[in-house]
Amino acid sequence: MKTFTLTCAMLLMSYFGLFAQSGMTIQGGGTLTVNGNLSITPVFVCGQVLTDTRDGKTYSTVLIGAQCWMAQNLNVGARINGPQEQTNNSVIEKYCSYDDENNCNVYGGLYQWDEAMQYSTTEGVKGICPTGWHLPADAEWTILTTFLGGEAIASGKMKETGTMHWSSPNTGATNSSGFTALPGGNRDEIGRSLSINGDADFWSSTQTAADNAWARELDYSNVTVYRGSFFKPYGFSVRCVKN
Question: Do the beta carbons of residue 127 and residue 135 sit within 8 Å?
Fold first, then answer.
């Protein structure tokens, strides 16, 4: 048995049916094994729709520089009410702003840092992300904002345009990066829903202290991406980046 790396040429040949030979079948795309059958493992290409096999939800993806990002906020888990704490109970739990599942359907879930990390403290861990994706480290957020011209202007290139979801005036929003940031707001440390339509707050997987971690905040009124250290019990949005 011989194993070969599937090239673009092979993909084209497959497309035109040149592998349609007796005793050979096409099952996917990726690694070609010659043993009487053609077995190909599917390969994800950034820009394709990501399907989360855990619940069947789908997410747009976008290539920004050399990074592949989810272009929607993650919405996975069972909803609990804001005053409750998310716990290490083998069930992914989420908050929805104002305890309304419809807000999760639009803006994604809100997660405490420990829940988002699935109770690891390892930078770049998979956490609650789909398989093959992970919670971006602080340095990965910096790579993104640097590619978009720096923190002072990057928010405008990341925010969804218009005021369907963002509060007016949604200053400088062009979404030229395709990141399509949505203002899911946050859940504060005592369980209140705050700033929906006004802020987009995203966790990184990098701690700053035992009780704090780096996050990024985008605001409706300017084009700055704020980098700050936030209390881990806050509930923030999650964007995953491809491994």
Answer: yes
What is the C-alpha to C-alpha distance for residues 71 and 5, in angstroms, rounded to an integer?
Answer: 30
Confidence of residue 83 (pLDDT cuts 50, 70, 90): very high
Phi then psi dihedrals of residue 116, to 5 deg? -60, -35
Euclidean distance between CA atoms 165 and 163, whole angstroms: 5
Counting DSSP H helices and E strands in the chain, the numbers are: 5, 16
Tens-digit pLDDT profile for residues 15-37: 334 333 333 333 333 444 445 55
Q: Output the DSSP codes for 192-224.
A: -EE-TTTEEEEEEEEEEETTEEEEEEEETT-SP
Helices (H), 79-233: 101-107, 113-116, 138-147, 154-158
Tokens at 160, concatenated:
């969804």
> Which run of H or E residues covers position 94?
strand 93-94
**Could you give the CA distance from residue 67 to residue 78 in angstroms, rounded to a whole number?**
29
Amino acid present at 75: N
pLDDT of residue 1 exceeding 60: no
Q: Residue 179: helix, strand or coil by DSSP?
A: coil
Task: Write the CB contacts of 49 (distance below 8 Å, at least 6 apart in sequence).
Answer: 58, 59, 60, 61
* pLDDT per residue as tens digits for the range 68-78: 999 999 999 99
Rounded to whole angstroms, how far apart are CA atoms 24 and 110?
47
Does the structure show a pLDDT above 70 at 121? yes
Element at 12 (helix H, strand E) = helix 8-15
